[in-house]
Amino acid sequence: MVYVSNLLLREEVVARTVSSDAQGNYEISSLKAGTYQVTTTMSGFKKSLTDDVRLRSNVVRRVEITLEDREVATEVAVNALGQTPAKAPVRE
Fold it and tell me: Residue 15's domain spans which residues?
């Protein structure tokens, strides 16, 4: 999901779900000129915030967004008979 808000007016402008193509390109059209913040979320990734995106009338603006993997922590318990389990975090 890509969420766009106007930073100068501090008002919600639009919230849309857009799909990217095979190269990761996406488009959000019909935004008025102004300064925006773009928030991008996707399952399995950290939320991305891009501030100070300035749009002018009738000009296409490209915003590069890189999503980072969300850390996944797993706990593994090892137990030998008659002993207390030892716990160690495992990162994937």
Answer: 2-91
Give the predicted TM-score (pTM) of the model.
Answer: 0.62
Tell me the CATH number at 30: 2.60.40
For 33-44, how does the pLDDT look when each residue is reduced to its tens digit (9 = 90+)? 888 888 888 888
Q: How many CB atoms lie within 10 A of CB 35?
A: 13
Q: What pLDDT does 26 receive?
A: 80
- DSSP string across the chain: -EEEEETTTTEEEEEE-----TT-------PPSEEEEEEE--TTB--EEEEEEEE-TT--------PPBPP-EEEEEE--TTSPPEEEEEE-
Torsion of CA 31, 67, 25, 16, to 10 degrees: -40
Count structural domains, the chain: 1
